[in-house]
Design brief:
By secondary structure, this protein is mainly beta. Helix content is about 0%, strand content about 50%. The protein contains no helices and eleven strands. The strands form two sheets. Strands 2, 4, 5, 6, 9, 10 and 11 form a seven-stranded mixed β-sheet that branches. The chain has a four-stranded antiparallel β-sheet with strand order 1-3-8-7, with no helix packed on it. A hairpin with a 6-residue loop joins strand 4 and strand 5. The protein is globular and about 40 Å long.
Length: about 110
C-alpha cells in the first residue's frame, strides 16, 4: 500500500503563497494519477486539482489560475503551488494516490 506524507501547510495572509508537498512511498508513483482535495470546517471534502500519469492537469473552478499541481517522478512527490490565496481557501488539504490518503495539512489564510 502506498504511504503518503504531506507537508507545507501553515498560516499566510491573503494574497500570499504556499507550496504543499506530498511524498509517496512505493515504486508505482510514475504510473499513478494524483489528487489534491480540501475540506473546510462544516463542508464536504472537495477535489481541488488532479494530475495524471502523463502530467495532464485539471482544477476546480475556484482555484483555476491560482493553484498549480505538479509532480516530480524522481522524488516520488506531488506538489500544489498555491498563489493569491484567499480566506476561503482555508481548509485541511489532503493528497490522494494509489488508493491512499495523506494525513492532511492545515492551510489558514487570514484576511
Amino acid at each position: 500500500q502506498v504511504q503518503l506524507v504531506e507537508s507545507g501547510g501553515g498560516l499566510v495572509q491573503a494574497g500570499g503563497s504556499l507550496r504543499l508537498s506530498c511524498a509517496a512511498s512505493g515504486s508505482i508513483f510514475n504510473f499513478m494519477g494524483w489528487y489534491w482535495y480540501r475540506q473546510a470546517p462544516g463542508k464536504q471534502r472537495e477535489l481541488v486539482a488532479t494530475i495524471t500519469s502523463g502530467s495532464s492537469t485539471n482544477y476546480a473552478d475556484s482555484v483555476k489560475g491560482r493553484f498549480t499541481i505538479s509532480r516530480d517522478n524522481a522524488k516520488n512527490t506531488v506538489y500544489l503551488q498555491m498563489n493569491s490565496l484567499k480566506p476561503e481557501d482555508t481548509a485541511v488539504y489532503y493528497c490522494k494516490g494509489g488508493g491512499s490518503w495523506g494525513q492532511g495539512t492545515q492551510v489558514t489564510v487570514s484576511s
